[in-house]
What we know:
Elements: E1 8-12, H1 14-23, E2 31-35, H2 42-50, H3 57-65, H4 72-78, H5 92-103, H6 107-118, E3 124-126, E4 133-137, E5 143-145, H7 147-151, E6 159-163, H8 170-178, E7 181-184, H9 189-197, H10 200-208, E8 212-216, H11 231-242, E9 249-253, E10 264-267, H12 280-296, H13 310-313
Parallel strand pairs: 1-2, 1-7, 2-3, 7-8, 8-9, 9-10
Antiparallel strand pairs: 4-5, 4-6
Helix pairs in contact: 1-3, 1-12, 3-4, 5-6, 8-10
Amino acid sequence: MQLKNIKVVAIGGGHGLGRVLSTLSFLEKQLTGIVTTTDNGGSTGRLRKRSSTIAWGDLRNCLTQLVDKDSIGSQLFDFRFDGEDELGGHNLGNLILFALGQIQSRPLDSIKLVRRLLRVKTPVLPMSETPTDLMAFYPEGRCRVGELSVDEMPVMPKNLMLAPLVKTLSHCNEALANADLIILGPGSFLTSVVPPLLVRDIVNGIQNSKAHCVFIENIVPEKSPSSQLTLDEKLLWIKENIGCLPIDSVIAHGNEVKSDILPVLNCDLANHNIEHYHDRAKLIKALEQCVANIEEQPITLDHKSVNDFSNIVNS
Length: 315
């Protein structure tokens, strides 16, 4: 089974998921993106304060990553107003999606219309059509609300949840059920990778799917409390927070990332021009190797039981 012959679902947010979708865009309709919708910063955050809506920024970024960068559509949806007036800092694509969201009956209809305008064949879906925010709890019980606040925490939160709890779309469930490979990340661990896993339907969909689920680690440490954690501590944190570990293997840059819990494919993934970017050709090669490994020797997981986790979140 080669990569071009399988169905892939990529889950995450921000620039990480956009990079994966752009890399795998040759799959067209065989590829589906499920996008985190909890962002509350920048242009997106201002729009969310104005009216209750999902976060459009990551969706817009993923859509434009699937379009030729030199096209008028890409330039239009990526255009950002400068200045310090009411439009200053706003992204035109965010404004268009926000306006369509006020006109259409549901966010998915707005996304479908933009996909037609930009001629994007790959389905790009929000993790939920219901607005929700991240809520993070310190070990001693205090909490912070919102993505920006979570990334600024000095220590790892003990728990992370969505407020309110939301359900995913039937289209997401169908994509997960039919997938051969599910990709998590790369991207901010707490605010891009984890939020979709807090949607119970998505976690159940990953667990019930026949697909192999691979987690792609970042190339450089991120500026968030999760930078304090090793790979295994991240995996244990996920299991502690959602009650299971839906990941089957990991792709990591370099040879230093190891795990006692899951198989790790170590390889060179760095882009020579931008150090924190995954190189497209190298990422495809790594995913091809991941698929080949699954075919040659299917992995039977024996996830370790999680002991007292307080030492990790308090460290």
